[in-house]
Structure formats: C-alpha cells, structure tokens
C-alpha cells in the first residue's frame, strides 16, 4: 500500500537522536520499563559507531507517513549454547499509542528478523500489568510461554515478567494498513 497509512520500519537517523534522548531522560516516557536516568550522550556515541545496526543488537524506528512514532529494539540471545534467537522491545511515544501501530510494528520487526537471519525464535517479555503490550504481541502472532519469576528489579522490587514468543513457522498475521490516518 502506498496511501501513507501503513506502518514502516527504518534505521535510526541523526534527527531521531533527540527522541531517543527523551526516552533516556524523561521519567516513564518509555512506560513501565523506566529504570532511572540514562546517559544522554550515549545515543550520539552509538549512532556514530554503527547507526544502531549492530550484529548482535540494534534499533529501528517505526514510522507512519514519515513521522517517527517511537523506538524498537532487537537483541540476540543464545539457548543451549548454539541456538541464536532475538528478543525485541518497543516504546511508542504517548501520542502514537492506541492507534494500531504497536502490533503492526512488532509483526514487521519479527518478519524482518526471520527474513535476514536463520533464527528459529523471536521472543518478547512484558509486565503482568501491561495489557496493551500483551494484546499487541498476540496480535503480532506471539504466544504466551509463561511467567519468568522475579526477572526484573523495577520500582523498588523484584517483579515477575511474562515471556512471549513467535517461532519461524508460527502463523504470521497479515499486516494491514492502519484503519484510519492517525496524526500525532
Ligand atoms: C505497548 C505498546 C507497544 C502497544 O502498542 P499500541 O499501538 O498502543 O497498541 P496496539 O495497537 O498494538 O494494540 C493492541 C491491542 O491492545 C489494546 N490496547 C491498546 N492500548 C491499551 C491499553 N492502554 N489498555 C488495554 N488495551 C490496550 C488495543 O485495543 C488492541 O486490542 P484490540 O485489537 O482488541 O482492540 C504501546 O502502547 C507502547 O509503546 N506503550 C508504552 C511502552 C511499552 O509499554 N512498551 C512495551 C514494554 S514491554
């Protein structure tokens, strides 16, 4: 589709660095994953190093009609010493949430990773109270695998997480254009 109402992924541009710095310095802009202030100079260093497109981890920008909606991440992991997999993450800016972008972007990133690497598995973790991300992952073709007990220290306590995955042969959702033309 070329009507501009589709979600696309693209590499990070220098003009995105201000947004990435906001996620590091504005409490809870990233949502529940806020873990305190981060180094605001780190994005420029990382961008200069490899444009956020590393062999083992990277970032892509979900955009709608040329506007950056937030930030996505992928990081390689290893099971059994030889089975490489990817773990993905997403943070949309508040004005872009609840418009159907999150599940489409996560489905697109999963397809991208399956297309460009032989990984058998893409996984994603979320919080028990993050209903939006749980629904978003299921719409992106992920299945709940289980509870990871006390896997993260957040907001002053060790907390459980939910682990989701999509395997290479799991059914992929059709990533349709957005139902309407959202504006920020
Ligand atoms: C979580 C997030 C990626 C979801 O993306 P989104 O574009 O807002 O939501 P989606 O369009 O993918 O929604 C998928 C489903 O969740 C529902 N949903 C969206 N926001 C919701 C909310 N706040 N509460 C409950 N359900 C919600 C949608 O209605 C949709 O379900 P439906 O098809 O039955 O209507 C996005 O809200 C976000 O970036 N939040 C802040 C950061 C974050 O929590 N990241 C994940 C950390 S693990």
Automatic annotation (TrEMBL):
<dbReference type="InterPro" id="IPR016181">
    <property type="entry name" value="Acyl_CoA_acyltransferase"/>
</dbReference>
<dbReference type="GO" id="GO:0008999">
    <property type="term" value="F:protein-N-terminal-alanine acetyltransferase activity"/>
</dbReference>
<dbReference type="GO" id="GO:0005737">
    <property type="term" value="C:cytoplasm"/>
</dbReference>
<keyword id="KW-0808">Transferase</keyword>
<dbReference type="InterPro" id="IPR000182">
    <property type="entry name" value="GNAT_dom"/>
</dbReference>
<dbReference type="GO" id="GO:1990189">
    <property type="term" value="F:protein N-terminal-serine acetyltransferase activity"/>
</dbReference>
<dbReference type="InterPro" id="IPR051908">
    <property type="entry name" value="Ribosomal_N-acetyltransferase"/>
</dbReference>
<feature type="domain" description="N-acetyltransferase">
    <location>
        <begin position="7"/>
        <end position="169"/>
    </location>
</feature>
<protein>
    <submittedName>
        <fullName>Protein N-acetyltransferase, RimJ/RimL family</fullName>
    </submittedName>
</protein>
<dbReference type="Pfam" id="PF13302">
    <property type="entry name" value="Acetyltransf_3"/>
</dbReference>
């Amino acid at each position: 589709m070329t009507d501009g109402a589709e979600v696309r992924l693209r590499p990070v541009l220098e003009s995105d660095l201000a947004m990435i710095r906001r996620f590091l310095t504005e409490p809870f802009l990233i949502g529940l994953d806020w873990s305190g202030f981060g180094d605001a100079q780190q994005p420029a260093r990382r961008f200069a190093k490899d444009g956020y497109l590393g062999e083992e981890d990277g970032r892509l920008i979900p955009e709608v009609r040329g506007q950056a909606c937030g930030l996505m991440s992928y990081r390689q992991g290893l099971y059994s010493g030889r089975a490489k997999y990817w773990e993905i993450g997403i943070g949309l800016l508040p004005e872009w949430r609840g418009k159907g972008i999150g599940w489409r972007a996560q489905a697109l990133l999963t397809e991208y990773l399956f297309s460009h690497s032989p990984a058998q598995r893409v996984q994603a973790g979320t919080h028990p109270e993050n209903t939006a991300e749980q629904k978003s992952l299921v719409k992106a073709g992920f299945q709940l695998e289980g509870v990871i007990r006390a896997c993260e220290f957040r907001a002053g306590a060790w907390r459980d997480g939910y682990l989701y995955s999509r395997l290479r042969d799991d059914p992929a959702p059709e990533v349709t254009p957005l139902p309407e033309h959202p504006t920020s």
